[in-house]
Design goal:
This protein is α/β, with parallel strands linked by helices and about 130 residues long. It has helices at about 10-15, 50-60, 75, 80-85, 95-105, and strands spanning about 25, 40, 65-70, 90-95, 110, 120-125.
């Protein structure tokens, strides 16, 4: 058994398969999950695990070269907006409907238990060298 890092075997394995440019949608419990991408559903109950906790764990494991979120997060979820702004200084903002369209091209969807609106971000994988 792993001693550190992400212990969920489905998520750990999915992350190991990602390559440069692949998309990872980290989403709240209410985001429609597109058909096609591999889905790792971590939602246990409302708020567990939180969007921030899952994002923190993923960022410890991934190299991210870009991120996209819904512009609506600014008004509907100030806490999430502040988190995303702090983590991604060049965060791209698009209308929520466009984020849903873009998420269909993701290689992996990680569903959190977050129960606040617009706690979603599409990460674009980078490389470590």
């Amino acid at each position: 058994m792993k001693r550190a890092g992400i212990l969920n075997r489905h998520l750990s394995g999915a992350l190991a398969e990602l390559g440069h440019g692949d998309g990872v949608l980290v989403c709240d419990a209410g985001m429609p999950v597109p058909d096609g991408p591999r889905v790792v559903d971590l939602a246990f109950r409302a708020g567990v695990p939180s969007f921030a906790e899952v994002l923190d764990g993923l960022l410890a494991e991934l190299v991210v070269e870009g991120a996209t979120a819904a512009a609506e997060v600014r008004e509907a979820n100030a806490e999430c907006a502040a988190l995303l702004d702090g983590l991604f200084p060049t965060l791209d903002l698009v209308p929520h409907e466009r984020l849903k369209e873009l998420s269909a091209g993701a290689r992996l969807v990680v569903r959190t238990g977050e129960a606040r609106p617009y706690a979603n971000v599409l990460l674009r994988c980078g490389v470590f060298f």
